[in-house]
Specification:
The chain is of the alpha/beta class. The chain has helices at residues 22-30, 42-53, 83-91, 106-112, 162-174, 206-215, 226-236, 267-275, 290-296, 316-325, 344-352, 365-372; strands spanning 3-6, 10-14, 69-74, 95-101, 119-122, 147-153, 184-190, 194-198, 252-258, 278-285, 303-306.
Length: 373
């Protein structure tokens, strides 16, 4: 836990790695005094949180996939712009909650927050002291429950490597525990347009999935539209009707196998996919654009390249390890269950009480990509 105050400028009271016990944190919070100041620059404070507080050197554990949350309490309208720094914070994998009190601007609070259901407004600070629900702990993913979608590049220049792609997927499926209440698998192939071979709720037996994989033929054609394929799986595969269990907090994993650079834009599709809480892992050949793969991936370490698909076995163990380390998410919050119930402190305490070892990292590669071009 870290606490930062802000007015004209942010002032850190303690960092994420300052205290290691709850008693120490509570003692430090009880000793806080207001920093004072005349103006309120919340945008500057959000930028400070992203660049300084959530950094590795100050105890941020995004690289270890530990969830990153930012609870922003403000009592007035910010004099600087909040939309741009809040967008960068969210793109970086941090989930912000906005709590506005008294003269805070509800539109600014909504812009700050992860989505509108994570934005709250109260009339007085005293209203924050009412807890209506007990803290909820995120569960560590010890159970074998994952929704895994394989997105295979079926464009013309992957024809010779496609049998190896299929064998690689089969080998990964062999490591999973398939079942309705265990791991679920879907396979989508794409070139110009995507095609679903089977959904997450099509097969509940491992042998059925392996048999279906055997029957998949190379799609062919072009161009290679990876961005459109990412949008497709978000809208059509990672959904309730297709067997996705994202509402239950089951890890949502995308494994992309690509043979080259996309002919359409992937940036917006990749951001939207991650905002949907999907964890993408990318494998590309030497013809693929590594910056593009890193942009799509959960973080740069989740992007792999091999000279040819024949060499894909060299990263097999690493990929399996990454898949098995993706933890459960918190079940989706339903706005109708929280509006009008003073759940603000409940959310705060839920996050304070988190005990997980892995999840949620950010994608700063997008900014790096545009700067380098």
């Amino acid at each position: 836990v870290s606490v930062v105050q802000h007015s004209e400028r942010p002032t850190p009271n303690f960092y994420l790695n300052t205290y290691q016990t709850k008693d120490e944190v509570l003692r430090a919070v009880n000793q806080l005094t207001p920093v004072g100041g005349r103006s309120l620059n919340t945008g500057s404070a959000i930028r400070f949180m992203k660049d300084t507080i959530f950094s590795d050197r100050n105890g941020g554990r995004a690289a270890q996939m530990v969830p990153q949350f930012n609870i922003i309490l403000t009592g007035g309208r910010s004099r600087d712009n909040v939309k741009e720094p809040a967008g960068a914070l969210k793109t970086g994998g941090v989930i912000p909650f906005g709590v506005g009190v008294k003269n805070a601007d509800p539109k600014q609070i909504e812009a700050i927050s992860h989505n509108p259901s994570f934005a709250f407004n109260v009339r007085e600070f005293s209203e924050l002291t009412t807890q209506t629900h007990p803290p909820v702990l995120l569960e560590q993913s010890n159970s074998l429950q994952r929704d895994i979608v394989f997105l295979l590049d079926g464009s013309e220049d992957t024809r010779s490597g496609f049998p190896v792609m299929k064998s690689f997927v089969q080998r990964l499926v062999e490591t999973l525990s398939i079942g309705e209440n265990k791991d679920r698998v879907s396979v989508v192939q794409y070139s110009r347009d995507p095609k679903t071979h089977f959904y997450l709720n099509t097969y509940m037996e491992k042998r059925d999935i392996l048999n279906a994989l055997q029957e998949i033929n190379h799609k062919g054609g072009g161009p290679r539209n990876t961005g459109a394929a990412l949008d497709y799986v978000r809208h059509n595969t990672f959904t309730d009707s297709s067997g996705s269990r994202y509402q239950e907090g089951i890890p949502q994993i995308l494994i992309l196998l690509s043979g080259g650079r996309s002919q359409d834009d992937v940036a917006s599709a990749a951001v939207a996919l991650k905002q949907h809480k999907v964890v993408p892992l990318c494998v590309g050949t030497r013809k693929a654009d590594i910056l593009e793969l890193q942009m799509i991936a959960h973080n740069p370490s989740y992007a792999f390249t091999v000279p040819r698909f024949d060499d894909i076995g060299s990263i097999y163990q690493q990929l399996v390890s990454f898949v098995k380390r993706v933890p459960r998410q918190q079940p989706r919050l339903k706005p109708e269950n929280i509006l009008g119930k003073k759940i603000y402190l409940s959310i705060y305490l839920s996050i304070i009480s988190l005990y997980v070892t892995l999840t949620e990292h950010h994608l700063c590669v997008r900014e790096r990509f545009y700067r380098s071009n």
